[in-house]
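Record type: monomer structure entry
Structure origin: computed from sequence
Chain ID: A
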Amino acid sequence: MYFSILSISTTKGDLLITEKYQNDVNEECLKSFIHEIVTSKPRCLPPVMEKNGVYCYFIHREKLLYIALTTAVTSTVVAVELLDRLHHILKDFCGGVSEHVIKKNLVLVHEIMTGMLNGGYIQMTDTEKLKAMIYSDVQLLKKNADIGLHFRGCRQNEIFLDVVERLVVLFDPKGNVKRFQLNGALEMKTNLPSQASVKIGLNEDLVVTKELNKAGAYNTGVCLDSCTFHENVKKEDFYTNHSLLVQPPQGEFCVMNYTVDASLPPVFPFQLVSVVQESATSDLDVILKLKTEMPGNTEALNVKVHLPVPSRTTSVMQQFSMSDNTANFSKTEHIVTWNIKKLPGSAEIVAKFKLIDARQNQAYALQLGPIAVEFEVSNFVCSGLRINFLKVVNVATTPTIQRWVRYVTLADSYMFLI
C-alpha cells in the first residue's frame, strides 16, 4: 500500500503543508476533500471517504487536520495510525503542535514527512530513527520557548502517563452497533535522571488477538487486536507478565499504540434513544434520551449532541430535564446542538425539541439525522486496559517520584442513526 499525498491544514481549511509522493492525485482533489471535511456537520463523517477512486483518510488533532490520500486499497487502521504517528512525531521534535508551530518549522516538517514515507510507502515512524535524517533545528515560538519538559507542568522526578482511546462507532436506530473501531495509545512524559527506566504493569488478563489465535485459546479478559511500541520500549515481558520496560526519550512520546475492532467492548460511554413525533401542524417533535453507561465514579465533559434537522426548519423550541443544559440552532447549517458541560456516569437526561415548520419539505425524514455526539470522558476507557503499577528502576538512589495516571476516552466519530 502507498499514499499519494500527506497534508496538514487548519480545521478551517487553510493548507499549511502538503507533501506529494505520487502523481496519481492532484491538489484540486485534496482541496475538494478538505472543503467537504471542514464544511460538514461536526463529527458526522467517518475517518475515510472515497471520491472518483481516491480514498481520503483524516484525523483531527489539536485544531489541526491531518490528511492522507491514495488510490490504493488501504487499511483504515494503518492510515489513521500513520497520521496519528505524524502528529506525535511532530510533538516529539517541536514539544507541541499548532498552526503557528507548523508555519515556523516548515522545513523541519517537510524533512519529517519525507523521512516517514519514501515514494509514498511507509518507511519509518520512529522518532529516534528519524533524528538521523533530520538536519533542521526546531524553531520555538518565543512565548512557548519553555514548551519542552514544562509543557504539561512536568517537574523534576515526575511521570505523566495517559491512556487515551478514540472511538469510531455507528449505531443503528435500535441501538445495535453497525461499525466500531477503537484507536488507543499510552502517552508518556517524564522528567527523570538520564539513566532511569520506567516499568509499566498492565492487566494480568491482557492478550493480543494474534497471540491468542496462535495459542488456540479463548480469552474473557482485555483483548487488543494489534499493538505497536516505541523503539525505546523493551517488550520481552509483555506477552508473559504483561509489563513494559521503557527508557524514556526526551519530551512527550507514545509508549504503545493499539487497536480494537474485531470484538465489541462490554460498555460504551453513551447510549441514545430518539423518538420522532409528527404534530397536527407542520412541526416535528424530537425527544432525545441520553444515558451514560460508564461507572458512577467517571465524568463526561463538554458533551455536545449534534442533531441535523430538515432544511425548512425556521426555529426550534427546547426543553431539558437538567436546568444547566443549553442548545443552539444554526439555520445555515440546519443543525441543533445540545450542550452539556458535565455529565456523571450512570446518569440519564432528556431533551425535547420542537422543530417549527420542519415538515414543509416532503423529504424531511431523510434530512433528520444522523445524530453525532462529541465528548471527553475521564477515568474510563472502553477496552478495559489498566495500569497496575508504574515504577522507576535503574537508579542509584530512588528519589521521591510523583506519578500521574489518567484515563481518557474521546469521540472521533460517535453517531446514531434515527
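Annotation 1: The first strand starts at residue 5 and ends at 10.
Annotation 2: The chain has a mean pLDDT of 86.
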